[in-house]
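Researcher: Going back to the complex we discussed earlier. I've cleaned up the inputs and rechecked each line, so this should be the final set. Can you rerun the prediction on the complete assembly and write out the structure?
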Amino acid sequence: MHQAALLGGLIQDASHYGWEVAHPIPHNWQKMAEAVQNHVKSLNWGHRVQLHDRKVKYFNIKASFVNEHTVRGLTKAGKETLLSAEHIVIATGGRPKYPVHVDGALEYGITSDDIFWLKESPGKTLVVGASYVALECAGFLSGVGLDTTVMMRSIPLRGFDQQMASLVTEHMASHGIEFLQGCTPLRVGRLLDGRLQVTWQEHASGKEDSGTFDTVLWAIGRVPETRGLNLEKAGVRINPDSQKIVVNAKEATSIPHIYAIGDVVEGRPELTPTAIMAGKLLARRLFGGSSALMEYDSVPTTVFTPLEYGCVGLSEEEAITRHGQEHVEVYHSHYKPLEFTVPAREAAQCYIKMVCLREPPQLVLGLHFLGPNAGEVTQGFALGIKCGASYEQIRRTVGIHPTCAEEVPRLHISKRSGLDPTVTGC
Amino acid sequence: MIFSKSYCPHSARVKELFSSLGVAFNILELDKIGCVHAHQSGLLQTLLEEKSHASAYDYDLIVIGGGSGGLSCAKEAAIWGKKVMVLDFVVPSPHGTFWVKHNWETMIEAIQKHIGSLNWHYKSSLREKAVTYVNSYGEFVADHKIKATNKKGQEAYFTAANFVIATGERPRYLGLPGDKEYCITSDDLFSLRHSPGKTLVVGASYVALECAGFLIQQLESGSPGKLKVVAKSTEGRETIEDIYNTVLLAIGRESCTRKLGLEKIGVKINESDIAASIMLCSIRFPQESELKATVGATCDYVNVPTTVFTPLEYGCCGYAEEKAAEVYSKKNLEVYHTLFWPLEWTVADRDNNTCYAKIICNRLDNDRVIGFHIFGPNAGEITQGFAAAMKCGLTKQLLDNTIGIHPTCGEVFTSLEITKSSGLDISQKGC
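Model: Rerun complete. Updated structure for the full complex:
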C-alpha cells in the first residue's frame, strides 16, 4: 500500500516530465485492496506449496502445551488432537494491542490486522500510535488521498534516532497529515450518522477535545501470543512484564528441547528477516550439524513512511551515551534527489548522517538515511558496517552517479564544524 | 596562518583569541590532512615553499576543462589556498548545440532548467572559493603559458606553475559522408526542439542502450524529417535499409586532445583516452579526499561501481564473470546467483523471473566478493553500499551473517544459496 501511495506522487511528477496526465487522478480503494489481498493469499499459497514439496505436515489448528513434549491441537470446529515431538519451536509472533482503558476501543476501532482487508475505503482516519506501524499506515492512507490524523502520547518512533524521527514526521506533516502530539484517547463512540467520535486529553493543558472520523486505527504496540499456549504446563519461562518468552543465544527456552524465535521472543528485534534467519539457523543447528548462532547486532532496518528512513547501527544519542560526545563525530548532509528536481518536490527532509568514532580511522557506528528507496540504499552499507567500515573507507568509495546513495561516500561536513550541511547536486 | 590540530585545546584558544581580536586568519588542521607531525616530517616546509614559489606565475594552477574532474580539482586546490583558474569552453557540436538553450516539449524545458541551475551552482561555488572561471578555449603555447580564446575570438595569455588537463571527451562520428550533417549524438539529444520521432541508435555502449531505452518509452509527436539509412551486417552479406526521423550516433567518445597544443610542450598522447580508461562522472570524489588525507596518494581505480540506466537498470562493482575467470581461473571462483521478483512488481503483475543478482567469490581468499552484479530497479542505489562493503573486504560469510532489510531488492544478496556450478534452478515461485 506504501507503493500505491508512492505511485500517486509519481503520477503527479509525471506531468512535469512531459506525460500528459489528466488531473486530478482518483484512487480506487477496492481495486488496491483486492490486489493486495490477492497477493497475500498467493504468498500464503506459495508457502503451503513449499511445505508440501518438502513433506512438512501443515495443520490449521490452535496449539497449546499439555506437557514438555506434548501439544494439544484444536481445530476451528473444536476437534482435538494430541501430538508429541522431540523438539518444539514456538514461533507464534505477536498481535496488535488494543487500549484497555479506552471505552469503545475494541468495538469501534481496527488495527493493522484489519486495514488490508477492508472492503471499503476507511475514509477519514485517526491513527493512534507513534510506532513505525502507525506512521507507515498513516503515510499510505494519506498517500492514497484520505484525510489522516496521527495521535501520539509522546515521541515518534521510540528507540530510533530522534533527530531522524522528527524529520520523518515533519515530512508527513508537510504533506497534509495532521499530528496530535502529547494526546491520549479517552473514549470512542458511534454517532447517529454512523461515524465515530473520539474524545482525547491533551497532557500539557489537561484539556479534553474531540473529533469525528470514519475509522480509528490502533497502532500502539504489539503483544506476544503467549497467553493461550499454557506455557506453564511445559515449564517455559516468560518475562512477566513483556509476556515474551526468554531464550538464550541458541534460542532455547528454560526447557532445553523447547525453542522460541521471532516476535514472541524477549529482547529480539521484531523484524521479518531476523525471524527467518533465526529459524533457518536453528534448524541447521538441530539437524544440520551447524553451530552458527544468530548475530543480532547492527541489524539494518527501514521505516516505509512517505519519505523512507533506513538505518543501521547506533543512533546519535546511543553513540554519545556509549562513547561520550568528545569521542563521536557525526558527518551529515541535506541533499536533493535528482528525481525531485524536475517536478520541484520539496527536499527539506532529505538528509543523511553517519555517526563515527572520532579517533582515526573513525569507525562507523551508525548510518541514517532519509530519502527515496532508503531500504535499497541502506542494505549495502549495512554490510560495510559489518565489515568494520571506517569513515575513511566509505569516503574512498567512488560514487555511482546519479543516485542518492552516492551522497553517503560524499559526506564530509561534520556537525561539530557548525557548517551548513546542504550539498548541491551533481 | 595557523597550523593547528582540530582537537587541541591550545589551538582552540588561539583561534578564539584571533577571532575576538577581529584578525583574519587561515587554518590548516594537521590532523585532518593525516599529518599531525607535518612540522617534523618536512611536509610543512614543502607546503610553505610551494606558497612562496607561486609568485613566479600568474596562477598556481590552471585547469583546462570545466567538467566534473576539472571543477573538483579546481575547488579542492582553492581550499588549500592556491590561486586557481578554470578555462572552460564547449566547442559547439556540428549542430550548434551548447547543451543549454533549446525548448523541446515540457520535458526538455524542465531538464534544461535543471542543467541550467546546476551550471549556476558550479559557477557560484567556484566564485565562493575564489577560483577564476573563464569561458575560453585554452591551448598551450609554451611550457608554462597558455593562450585563451573566447567566443568572439579575443585572445589572452596566462601562466601557471602547474596545469591540469581535464578536457574530457566528445562523441565520435562515423567518418562517413553525411554523418555530421544528418546524425546527432547524445550532446544534441536533450536540446532538440522537436521529438526525434522514429530513431535509429547506432552503437552498443551504455550511452547507446540508455538512449535507445529512453526513446522507446517516449510519446511520439512531430516529424523533423526523414533519413534513409543503409547498413551492412558485420557478419555476412545482409543489408538493412530503413527510413528514420533521427539517427543517433553512440559509437564511442574521443578525447579532446588534438587542439591543445600538447606537442608544443612535449606531452605525449596515446591515441585513445586522455588518462584513465574509466569514463565516469564520479571518479573525482576519491581524489578530493585522497588529496586531503594523504598528500601524494593516487586514486584507486579498482572496484569502481557503476550503473547503466537502461529501462531495467544494471549495477555492478568489481569483476565481470569473464574477467574474473581470466584473472583468477574459473576453478578458484564460486558464483552465487538468483532471479528475484521486486515487491512493486507483484501487484503490478510484472514478470517474476526477469530481475537477476549474482556475486563472484574468490574461493582462495575466504570467498571474498570480487564481483557484484544486479539487474533490477534502483540498481544504482543498491550497488553503492555494496561497493563500500567490497572496499572493506566483503566475503560470502559476512553476507550470510547479515540480516536483510525487508522488503527490498537488495536483501537478496543476504540469502544467496544457489551456485552456478550446481546447475540448480533459480526461478522464482513466490516470497
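Model: Worth noting: The first helix of chain A runs from residue 2 to 14.
Researcher: Good, that matches what I expected from the previous run.
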